[in-house]
Amino acid sequence: MRIDMDLYEEAFESIRSGNKRIEMRLNDEKRQKIQVNDLIFFHNVRNEYDVLRCKVTSLKTYKDFFELYEHYDKETIGYRKEENADPADMYEYYSEEKIETYGALAIGIEYIDDLYLADGHMHLEYGPLSTDYVMEFVEEGIRKGLDEINILDHSHRFKEFECCYEHLKVYEEQKNWLSKETKFCNTLDDYYRLIGDVKKKDLPIRVKFGLEVCYTSDTEELLKKILKDVHLDFLTGAVHSVDHILYDMSFSEKLLWDRKDPSYIYQRYYEEILSLIVSGLFDRLAHPDQIKLFDIDPGRDLSLTYEKIADALKEKDMYGENNTGIHYRYGHKDIGICEKMLETFRNKDVKLICASDAHKPSDVGTDIYIAALRNKGRR
Ligand SMILES: [Zn+2]
Ligand SMILES: [Zn+2]
């Protein structure tokens, strides 16, 4: 069985360092199902994608935490050498009545690794909103050895967001693109129904649902009104256009790249990225340096821009995506965000999540292992 638990940073680091080898919990119905050899994923409360994979090595039950504390030295249960181990500390987490009803559980744990493989970005865009189709993504995730997948269809799938795309329709090519059958073809209620059905299933990997919302500073107010009623696991904000011209389509060369100076395009792109972050509407920033997809020279040094973005992400406590999509979908040499930006994010302690941007099940998890290693500076 897979178990997910949240941990405060101090306890989390104590497991990573090998000191803490017992996790203490209330022995309630949920924990009674835990068995030796199960996997526990401990998520750092500060960053849920900072995860320690551990194996359950033993399970011992006690009448209460006073009895439990008698059996272990304080460092094994997570205290520092200079700290006083007091069983009453557990009242911070569990009430006396609950402890009396269920008793205490000492879970023996062996730390395995800290490489949690999550693919935070994939689309059902070219298929139906059906459980069977979601299961194709889940099965591919399992095949690729992932621990978690996140599905996030574009806002342009849903009727509720159609009003945010009027600016794009000024250009015939974009108007045609937006009138395709995959655009505005469902409502958010259709999506919620699907999510409800999938969440009823007991799946071996964690599956979350969100949206990839096309952001522009001109539609921010509209988005604010729509998003206040949207309740999903997470919201990812993305910049897909510069001055209302899409930069990543087959017609983008004609409408944008041939008409405007690359230096201006990059500048406007990053201004919009900053504005997206500052808006506070999103939990994650999609593909932060995707404007590089055609490998056109920005004609400017972007180091300071990367620093500003990192500071803003940190300030808003948002995740930055390390998205591998343009490597395998557009042939860009970088497997994910460029080294300079990634290094800046790491140095400024920005939370990172890996993303494949899969648009079909077979692309789920593409280059995620490499991206996960890069996020940790191990490659
Ligand atoms: Zn995108
Ligand atoms: Zn995407």
Number of helices: 14
Q: What is the second-level CATH architecture of the largest domain?
A: Alpha-Beta Barrel
Structural class: alpha/beta
Q: What is the string of helix and strand elements?
A: EHEHEEHHEEHEHHEHEEEHHEHEHHEH
Query: What is the CATH class designation of the largest domain?
Result: Alpha Beta
Distance between the termini: 31 Å
Q: In total, how many domains does the architecture comprise?
A: 2
Strand order of the largest sheet: 6-7-8-9-12-13-14
Strand residue percentage: 15-25%
Q: Please give the largest β-sheet.
A: 7 strands, parallel
CATH superfamily label of the largest domain: Metal-dependent hydrolases
Note poorly predicted spans: none
CATH topology of the largest domain: TIM Barrel
Average pLDDT, to the nearest integer? Answer: 97
Radius of gyration: 23 Å
Instruction: Write down the overall geometry.
Output: elongated
Kindly state the number of beta strands: 14
Bound molecules: zinc ion
* Helix percent band: 25-40%
Features:
elongated; 379 residues; alpha/beta; 22% strand; TIM Barrel; binds zinc ion; 7-stranded parallel β-sheet; Archaeosine Trna-guanine Transglycosylase, Chain: A, domain 4; 2 domains; 5-stranded mixed β-sheet
